[in-house]
């Protein structure tokens, strides 16, 4: 029989989606499920951004736009970068894409090929590994360790470089750990990369506005020395609670930019026009909505970390960014994915097992605290009862 469906064995999926689908199925059966699995703000998009999107539709922005995005939005992104990172970038180096994922998809497609090695954080956003494998390149995990506060270690990252390494993916603040890589470590990493001018860097800064305890976010864009090979990834999904609008942006050095533009022309054509106009309202409008959201996540972070540390045999370091906690559950005696499954089926709490984010995620769970304080409290109570009941299981 002819094989009509090509093999997609090498392309993975976010296993987290399977957990979320099971959580929804159980909820549909009438089960009361508290969902701390999903990685998106639980707040609506701020009204002035929604209004700008509606106005754009009323004003007739219904057609294709340039593949790289409309000029006023690319200019707004350049202003955002100037305001937040104190770095001057040309709007002509900014590309508008349908979500942060598309920047990583393009970057990994651009560099990945058989014989090439790509370094990526583990535990980390699952798409990195999946896309690297899809291109035929070898995924080389950079361990992200609890003893380093889930920050990148420059030394360990550089020790994994070989003559085949073509791309390094960095993510801070990080999913799934909430780790933020301190400036000294980024300085050391950039310094070390000077010896390897053929390695491009993809800096995933989608959680860049979400740091706590006065911890600053240090953009890799601020490092002149690697600007000619740095791809900066950001977007509206998390910062402006716009996951479903599909709006991201990236900054690329010139030769990479031309390749990315071709990939856009060959795939999505452009981002939905009304979404792009809403993006201008997001970036140029008042930023107090962002500050309010981050302050709310900060309160919930305290609640979740305190609650997790009160669970039997669980310990959780305080995450410095994003909206995830990554508790260590090795002392419970459970394997992480088995525990996540049991918590969902038996306690009605959806969390993600650490191994869904890479082999170095064993021994951990990921909890998203982008949920109401009431739900977080309910989830922690259920987890406490469950762990007390099953200790020594
Ligand atoms: N990068 C990281 C680290 C993420 O956690 C996510 C989403 O969860 C993305 C990128 C993708 O964001 P988007 O929804 O804009 O594609």
UniProtKB/TrEMBL annotation:
Keywords: Aminotransferase, Pyridoxal phosphate, Transferase. Its cofactor is pyridoxal 5'-phosphate. GO terms for molecular function: transaminase activity. Gene3D superfamilies: Aspartate Aminotransferase, domain 1, Type I PLP-dependent aspartate aminotransferase-like (Major domain). The keyword Repeat does not apply. Coiled coil: none annotated. PROSITE patterns: AA_TRANSFER_CLASS_1. Its EC number is 2.6.1.-. It is an enzyme of class 2 (transferase). Residues 32-382 form the Aminotransferase class I/classII large domain. Pfam families: Aminotran_1_2 (PF00155). It comes from the Bacteria. Belongs to the class-I pyridoxal-phosphate-dependent aminotransferase family. This is Aminotransferase.
């Amino acid at each position: 029989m002819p094989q009509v469906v090509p093999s997609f064995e090498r392309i993975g999926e976010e296993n987290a989606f399977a957990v979320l689908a099971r959580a929804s199925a159980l909820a549909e059966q009438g089960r009361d499920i508290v969902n701390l699995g999903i990685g998106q703000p639980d707040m609506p998009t701020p009204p002035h951004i929604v209004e700008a999107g509606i106005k754009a539709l009323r004003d007739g922005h219904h057609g294709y736009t340039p593949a790289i995005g409309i000029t006023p939005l690319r200019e707004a992104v350049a202003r955002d970068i100037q305001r937040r990172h104190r770095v001057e970038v040309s709007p002509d180096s900014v590309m508008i894409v349908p979500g942060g994922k598309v920047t990583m998809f393009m970057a990994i497609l651009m560099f990945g090929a058989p014989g090439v090695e790509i370094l990526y954080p583990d535990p980390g956003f699952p798409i990195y590994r999946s896309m690297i494998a899809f291109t035929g390149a070898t995924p080389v995990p950079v361990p992200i360790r609890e003893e380093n506060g889930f920050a990148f270690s420059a030394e360990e990252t550089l020790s994994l470089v070989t003559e085949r390494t073509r791309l390094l993916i960095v993510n801070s603040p990080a999913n799934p750990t909430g780790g933020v890589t301190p400036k000294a470590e980024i300085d050391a990493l950039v310094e070390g990369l000077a010896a390897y001018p053929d390695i491009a860097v993809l800096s995933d800064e989608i959680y860049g506005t979400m740091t706590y305890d006065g911890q600053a976010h240090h953009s890799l864009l601020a490092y002149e020395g690697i600007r000619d090979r740095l791809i900066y990834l950001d977007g509206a999904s998390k910062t402006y609670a716009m996951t479903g609008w599909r709006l991201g942006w990236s900054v690329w050095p010139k030769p990479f930019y031309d390749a990315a533009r071709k990939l856009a022309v060959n795939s999505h054509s452009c981002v939905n026009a009304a979404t792009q106009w809403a993006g201008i309202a997001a970036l140029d409008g008042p930023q107090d909505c962002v500050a309010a959201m981050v302050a709310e996540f900060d309160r919930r972070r305290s609640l979740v970390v305190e609650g997790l540390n009160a669970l039997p045999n669980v310990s959780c370091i305080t995450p410095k960014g994003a909206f995830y906690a990554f508790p260590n559950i090795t002392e419970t005696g459970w394997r992480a994915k088995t525990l996540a499954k049991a918590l969902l089926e038996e306690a009605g709490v959806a969390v993600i097992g650490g191994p869904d984010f890479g082999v170095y995620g064993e021994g951990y769970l990921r909890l998203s605290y982008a949920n109401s304080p009431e739900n977080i409290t309910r989830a922690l109570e259920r987890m406490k009862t469950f762990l007390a009941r099953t200790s020594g299981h």
